[in-house]
Amino acid sequence: MGLDNKKGKLLGHDRDELINLADKALKREGVISVIVVLLGFLLGTLLIAFVGKNPSGMYSSIWQAITGHNTVTGRFNIRNIGDTLNYLVPFTLCGLSIAFAYRAGLFNIGAEGQYIVGMTVATVCAYYGPKVPVIHAVYCLLMATAAAAAYGGVVGYLKSKFEVSEVVATIMLNYTALYLSRMVCMALPGATTYNTSPFPKTALMKWGPLESMFNGSTINLGILVLVFGLLVYWFIMEKTILGFELKATGFNKNASLASGIPTRRSTILSMAISGAFAGAAGAVVAIGSFTYGRIVSGMDNYGFNGIAVALIGNCKTIGILLAGYLFGVLKQAQQFMQTRGVPREVTFIIQGVIVVFIALRSAAEIMRARISKMKVGDSKAKSGAPASVKAE
Amino acid sequence: MEYAVEMLNITKVFPGIIANDDVTLKVEKGEIHALLGENGAGKSTLMSILFGAYKPEKGKIRINGQDANIVNSNTATDLGIGMVHQHFKLVHNYTVTENIVLGIEGTMTKDMLPGLSNSASPAARKCGKIFNKVFKNMMPLDFDLARDKIRRLCKQYGFDLNPDDLIENISVGQQQKVEILKTLYRDADIIIFDEPSAVLTPQEIDELLQIILKLKNEGKTIILITHKLKEIKAVADKCTILRRGRYIDCVNVKTTTEDELASLMVGRAVKFNIDKGVSKPAEVVFEMKNVSSDNELGVEKIHDLSLSIRRGEIVGIAGVDGNGQSELLATILGLYPVKSGDMFLKGVRINDKSIRERIEMGLGCVPEDRKKHGFVSEFDISMNSIIKDYYKSTFRDSFGVLDVSKSDKRAASLIKAFDIRCGQGVRSAVGSLSGGNQQKVIIAREIELKPDFIIFSQPTRGLDVGAIEGIRKRIIEERDRGAGIMLISFELAEIMNLCDRIAAISKGTINGIKNADETNESEIGLLMAGKKAE
User: Fold this and answer.
1) Contact A240 B43 (CB under 8 A)
2) Which of A204, A336, B319, B328 could cross-link A61 (Cys pair, CB 3.0–4.6 Å)?
3) Hey, is the C-beta of A374 within 8 angstroms of any chain B C-beta?
4) φ/ψ bin of B30: left (φ > 0), alpha (ψ from -120 to 50), beta (otherwise)
5) Same domain (yes/no): A144, A268
6) Topology given in CATH for the domain delimited by B291-362+450-534
7) Pick from B21, B356, B374: CB nearest A255
8) With contacts defined as CB-CB under 8 Å, which chain B residues touch A368?
9) Would B3-80+189-266 and B291-362+450-534 be classified into the same CATH topology?
């Protein structure tokens, strides 16, 4: 691009053009998300260099996570791509979960807890469900989704009925879910401190052809659940009356109430559906990525990372998918980074920095305000008359 | 002639708008100078610049002939400028004295070591001084001096205030006096009044004007921001007129008529009275019988209120802000439950009906707080136009899915019928429209639903004269269509102009209903103040 060309003309008449361009760019939320992500990587790069390692190790790891091509050995393994896609599923589903509540004006910090509930219920159903191929796995998924929906819906009910803060309630319910899960799973067949005995084959989301296509990767039919989830999210938000109600309630609860929209129902439903997405993520991890039940000692953090995914994706279907992919790639890259001597913790720092920089959205607003001021100043200087005057 | 305030060629730009465009204001010492303009003319911006809240892009300020660089309200105070804000800046659970000294309380701490600070040895005095400075924020306050000064000022200006009363226990008129005292306490010579009569009853306004004249007689310079011509004629010497951010003229009030002032303000001749025709009231469409209701804090704001409105008439609710108008609206709409009494819409008791049921029965509402209750600003006009009936099959396609083209069609017809000015047609976010056009969107949507009973609450607040005329015409059209209309407004002139009957509201109850053509402002004013009709 003619970058230096623009630079040269910066003080000339091209300035207006540049201002307009900047204004347009900052108006697009997607551009801001990209800037934020780039800033995150910039800081991560500097950090690696600062501790005396070679930042290129991080980028070659990320390259390998995306393309499966190992630049060090020159070998290609499609398995890496499959594994990355498998990580993408829970990140994106949890992102959808957070985004769904967020669009309705609720902050569901409890996706992690709902995820654990989904995972636990799927694990239990894997042992006690009908051992018929396909039906068993679907049964596990549906039960997990329903249980997590109820777990989220309770918070929505408390919020709409008693004005209980959904933030506080869900934070607390995260821990409730974690320890409840441990208690339940300890009682399952073959439970040790870490895991339970292998699942019946019928409960698994694995599909041989898919696995062999990706050279024995962990990728599984959870990817279909994700596609379905993305479609459901888009359809409800953009096409249904429920979506209309949720968005209206999220943007302006008072006006929605005064217009006769059942805002209480919106609150309960949005929390329940939000929980359902997180629960589906839990089920996919439980019977997709693993072949035995886990007795979790800590949180997997997919739910918490979902907050970042939703924010980076700006709660838009495609945005969430892309942000979920970014997080999947970073997670997959971690193991490669370690073999290249780059501290894998850098990816967490990048994720954290990205979340902090999301606050740049308001900075972008300030920038746009400045830009429009420049514009008004210009138009006035040119015509000697104000373009539009209305405020006091 | 010596000028107390000179603001020369002031230009202030906000994102997207020029609030002040080369405005000049010259105020002579000891005069009452009115600053006249419509809402949005740039009066408040200009005064905020004078008081240090904004920094102008261009222009110069001179106070008492000296160049002044006013960076914040403290510099303004030091220069002897005081401001009586439209919305009082008072702490309600503090006393009058505490409120007045708020912000300068640091100057009135007690000397904790008088032995040291008053001792003969300079070293000891210095120690005392340092001690007092270091522990300044922990020192007990000495209110006696402040109280004495406030008493003295009250006596000088004839204010009936007790320095130890809590703000929450005194009337709005008295609260305004506290605001005035704040400026006097800080020895202000130039006092700015920002729309001071907006919250007062007609009687309180008379009292305020007397106070302003008294201040002038004591040698103060007064700048009075207002759009009420009567007040300007009553007290002001000079009047500077702003229109759309520009300086229009500075006239001598004594030799200018109200009509001349009005046309200078608006830029064309203004018709003050609206030709509303004769009302033909039919059967009762809405009725309240001894209704009481609480607000969300559990305070009973509507108390034993009875009122009935017939089809084809406009009933005005006149009252001073804060006497239950907002709560009345919320109760009728269904936001607050009815605690006792009954409400009937078209003869059906609606106490227990949901908001949606009330809307479906024919209740329309243009709420006072447009942004909060009227629309979703992030939604476009299309979505806002169906926000009350989006669930009906008219807006879905054959699969039951929301069909945007159907709401677009409605929005397009509303935009055309109401001449809504919008950048991107039906896709314009309502939040991006100007206030007048936002109001048009709401009114268009309500009228589209053909309600039998419509509440208009402050329908013209903050709008320019052109938009006001259009909206008033619509209200009358709705009346003539056969709807019952309730008009809630703080502007008595608007109520007197538009309504067929006027109900005065005071402390949450209707204190008397008069036919508009058989009453006058002062009678309604007394009813608003809570005096019983004889």
Assistant:
1) no
2) A336
3) no
4) left
5) yes
6) Rossmann fold (3.40.50)
7) B374
8) 15
9) yes
The answer to whether A315 touches A104, Cβ cutoff 8 Å, is no
Eight-state DSSP code of residue B362 = T
A376 touches chain B (CB under 8 A): yes
The count of other CB atoms within 10 Å of the CB of residue B386 is 24
Whether residue B465 contacts residue B435, with contact meaning beta carbons closer than 8 Å, is answered with no
| pTM, entire model | 0.75
CA distance B300 to B337: 11
Based on the domain organization, do A61 and A121 belong to the same domain?
Answer: no
Would you say B90 and B179 are in contact if contact means Cβ atoms under 8 Å apart?
yes
The letter for the amino acid at A180 is: L
Q: Do B372 and A252 touch (CB under 8 A)?
A: yes
Six-digit token string for A346: 């850098």
Taking each helix axis as running N to C, give the angle between helix A317-339 and helix A29-50, from 0 to 180 degrees, rounded to the nearest 10.
10
Q: For residue range A241-274, what is the model confidence (pLDDT) as tens digits?
A: 999 999 999 999 999 999 999 999 999 999 999 9
Q: Where exactly are the structural domains of chain B?
A: 3-80+189-266, 291-362+450-534, 377-449
Q: Does A239 touch chain B (CB under 8 A)?
A: yes
Cβ neighbours of residue B111 under 8 Å, at least 6 residues apart? B117, B128, B132
pLDDT tens, residue order, chain B (534 aa) = 689 999 999 998 876 668 888 999 999 999 999 998 876 678 888 998 999 888 898 899 999 988 989 888 889 999 999 999 887 889 989 999 999 988 877 676 667 677 777 778 888 888 888 877 777 777 777 788 889 999 999 998 888 889 999 998 888 888 999 999 999 999 899 999 988 887 787 788 888 999 999 999 999 999 999 877 888 999 999 999 998 888 999 999 999 988 888 888 877 666 556 777 888 888 999 999 999 999 888 888 899 999 999 999 999 999 887 788 999 999 999 999 999 999 999 999 999 999 999 999 999 999 988 888 999 989 999 999 999 999 988 888 877 788 889 999 999 999 998 888 887 888 988 988 877 788 899 999 999 999 999 999 989 876 766 778 888 889 999 999 999 999 998 888 888 889 999 999 988 999 999 998 888 888 888 888 877 765
Per the domain annotation, does A328 fall within a domain? no
Q: Which domain holds residue A63?
A: 1-72+342-392
- Number of Cβ within 10 Å of residue B222's Cβ equals 23
Residue A334 lies in a domain: no
In a mutagenesis test of the A interface, which of B376, B378, B442, B449 is the best target, namely the one with the most A β-carbons within 10 Å?
B376
Query: Residue A228 falls within a domain, yes or no?
Result: yes
Transcribe B334-362 into DSSP letters.
Answer: TSS-EEEEEEEETTEE-TT--HHHHHHHT
CA distance B378 to A252: 9
Contact across the interface for B17 and A262, Cβ inside 8 Å: no
In a domain, A188, yes or no: yes
Check CB contact of A255 with chain B, cutoff 8 Å: yes
Q: Is A296 strand, coil or helix?
A: coil
Where b means 16+ CB within 10 Å and e means fewer, A198-212 reads ebeebbbbbbeebbe
What is the number of domains present in chain A? 2
Fold of B3-80+189-266: Rossmann fold (3.40.50)
Chain B residue with Cα closest to A258: B373
Of B41, B377, B401, the CB nearest to A239: B401
> Which of B245, B379, B435 lies at the smallest CB-CB distance from A248?
B379
Is the domain of A216 the same as that of A98? yes
